[in-house]
Prior knowledge:
By secondary structure, the protein is mainly alpha-helical.
Amino acid sequence: MSDAEVIQEICHYLEKKRNAPQRSSAYFILGKVGKNLANAEATQLLLMCISTEVDKYALSTALDMISELALKADEDISMIINLLQDRRWLVRHAAIRALKSSKSAQAEKELIALLGETNDVYDKIYCHVTLGVIGTAQALPAIQINTKSRKPDLKVSAVHAIESIKARIDALKVVPI
Length: 177
């Protein structure tokens, strides 16, 4: 799927009141077309959709598609951040994953805060995974706490996130001659 005209067609399709599975399918197609074309319009449309979507499955699909698209450092991610506190775990976890495509320092800050606030093991694991992709040295202390966990999945995800962040930091230090 690599035709920019599809984006406008999906926009018109979504303007009509569709049921949740149809909206979910439209979000999926929109995300794939946006990824294939590196299209900012698709990203904006998905971001607009998550602010109005109420169905947890369709919302999760839209967020998962956002995770595959590039979010610029100055992109407004407030609607994703608001979903980090959603009572529905499916939405919360998709929102955490959606931030892995963000270049915003706010995304890292919010994930670090969530790590400190939540008692949900899976929230923490998803935060580790996302911070492993976008995190900086600033995230290391918050992740380090979970390397002592008695829960193997939590401990392993923390260790891998730390390794990923340190590898990225080391790669930035290497200066080609």
